[in-house]
Design brief:
The chain has a two-stranded parallel ribbon. By secondary structure, the protein is mostly helical. The N and C termini lie far apart (40 Å). Helix 1 crosses helix 3 and helix 2 packs across helix 3.
Length: 123
Amino acid sequence: MSEQSLPDATPALPAYAERVLDVAELIPPGRVMTYGDVAEWLQEGGPRQVGRVMSLYGGGVPWWRVVRADGVLLAGHERDALGHYRAEGTPLREAGPAAQARMPRLDLRRARWDGAGHEQGHT
């Protein structure tokens, strides 16, 4: 079999996924957007669609800046995300004394980014 007859090993990224990942790359260090914020900013899809894109394709972008609306760190990636948040100075709410061995949450009131300085809508 020649190289020309081999199927392309890298399928094209869906257009919606490209737009979601573009937004993730716009979010400044130390700031976050929720899945719903990204969908609203794009004026397309919803939180679940954005979450699906991030789970499938988000490894090459600052994935830790696209977060859950309750500020809970991404399950299974808490330590990696926390390292990024601390390095970037992202506002956190430390777990209280009753929450033994629990991770802090994002302080969304202070960390949330509204896309200021960038044209809103489709990127």
